[in-house]
């Protein structure tokens, strides 16, 4: 068998593309292989975030990450992929990927299996200037102390609003997978497990009911942990697009994927913290503030991420490729 156990080029490329990041690890993609030489990439209608992502902007960005990784993986095998984006409008495929000869390997592809989203406190250590220059090829890297401080505060307050808004809290907690058994049975969503957390779950101190109770010790502990994470951030990465069309969102995802890989190559952690960019009523003032800080009039801030030196973290679970295919 060839790389990742597949001989057929489309399946082999897809076996890497499914490792792309997505909001809450929803893995919202489906791949239709019924026509030879091409893949119709669909967004799974059962994987939506109606409360926290009501216009599916973030899910579309996740599809952009998937498409960029698909193109890179195919190029490793000498296949050039051309993408026909939204060929039938909003209600059709996100893209038709046409496979042909060609394709040049991308050095960033070597980082695919090592890429992680490091959702931990980062070291109190500034990014070296040469790292900032390299990452600036993919995104705006914010290291100015006053702006970093403003973005730390904005990110934390927006996260707190989402956690204290019952309907958005319920959506997020509903996507949590508690403990090894749940994570293995349903390898998507937000994995909650390992070490101390497993012990708390075993004695009933950490579960969905506890996290949905904003007066519980578990909810308070979650808030204190997230506050510490947000403030332990030496730099931010920002992706801005000229407009906020679906094509802009796809492009933002492609750039975010490349930024992830470039950060991995430098030994840096990257963690999306896009609550301040979300488009529901309770966060509207924070979204406006993010755009005041980071964008010019008419532009859209698509991604905001914490950036810094963090600990090694395990890979996020994925559904096997066969569960994300549409076949005849």
Q: What would your notes on this structure say?
A:
By secondary structure, the protein is of the alpha+beta class. It contains eleven helices and eleven strands. The protein has a five-stranded mixed β-sheet, covered by helices on one side. Helix 2 crosses helix 10, helix 4 (145-164) runs antiparallel to helix 9 and helix 4 packs antiparallel against helix 11 (284-294). 39% of the residues are buried.
Strands side by side in the biggest sheet: 3-4-2-1-11
Shape: globular
Portion of residues in beta strands equals 15-25%
**Can you give the mean pLDDT?**
94
For the largest beta-sheet, the strand count, sense and barrel status come to: 5 strands, mixed
Spell the H/E element sequence: HEEHEEHEHHEHEHHHEHEHEE
What topology does this entry show?
Blueprint: H1 9-17, E1 29-32, E2 38-43, H2 57-76, E3 79-85, E4 95-101, H3 129-135, E5 140-142, H4 145-164, H5 166-174, E6 176-178, H6 179-185, E7 190-192, H7 195-202, H8 208-212, H9 217-231, E8 235-241, H10 246-265, E9 269-272, H11 284-294, E10 300-308, E11 325-326
Helix pairs in contact: 1-2, 2-10, 4-9, 4-11
In short:
By secondary structure, the chain is of the alpha+beta class. The chain has 11 helices and 11 strands.
Characteristics:
alpha+beta; five-stranded mixed sheet; 40% helix; 11 helices; four-stranded antiparallel sheet; 328 residues
């Amino acid at each position: 068998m060839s790389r990742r156990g597949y001989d057929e080029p489309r399946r082999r490329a897809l076996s890497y593309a499914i490792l792309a990041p997505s909001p809450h690890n929803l893995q919202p993609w489906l791949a239709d292989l019924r026509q030879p030489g091409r893949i119709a990439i669909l967004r799974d209608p059962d994987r939506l975030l109606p409360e926290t992502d009501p216009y599916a902007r973030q899910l579309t960005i996740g599809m952009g990450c998937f498409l960029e990784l698909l193109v890179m993986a195919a190029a490793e095998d000498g296949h050039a992929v051309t993408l026909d984006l939204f060929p039938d409008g909003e209600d059709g495929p996100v893209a038709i990927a046409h496979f042909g000869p060609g394709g040049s390997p991308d050095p960033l592809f070597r980082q695919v299996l090592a890429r992680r989203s490091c959702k931990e406190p980062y070291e109190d250590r500034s990014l070296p200037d040469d790292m900032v220059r390299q990452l600036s090829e993919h995104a705006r890297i914010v290291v100015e102390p006053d702006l970093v401080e403003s973005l730390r505060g904005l990110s934390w307050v927006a996260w707190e609003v989402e956690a204290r808004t019952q309907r958005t809290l319920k959506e997020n907690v509903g996507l949590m997978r508690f403990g090894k058994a749940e994570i293995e049975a349903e390898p998507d969503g937000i994995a909650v497990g390992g070490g101390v957390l497993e012990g708390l779950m075993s004695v009933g101190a950490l579960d969905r009911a506890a996290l949905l109770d904003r007066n519980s010790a578990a909810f308070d502990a979650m808030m204190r942990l997230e506050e510490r994470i947000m403030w332990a951030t030496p730099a931010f990465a920002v992706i801005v697009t000229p407009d906020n069309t679906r094509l802009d969102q796809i492009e933002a995802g492609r750039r975010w994927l490349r930024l992830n890989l470039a950060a991995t190559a430098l030994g840096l952690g990257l963690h999306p913290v896009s609550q301040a960019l979300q488009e529901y009523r309770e966060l509207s003032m924070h979204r406006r503030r993010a755009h005041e800080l980071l964008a010019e009039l008419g532009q859209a801030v698509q991604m905001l991420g914490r950036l810094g030196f963090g600990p090694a973290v395990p890979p996020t679970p994925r559904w096997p490729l066969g569960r994300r295919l549409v076949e005849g």
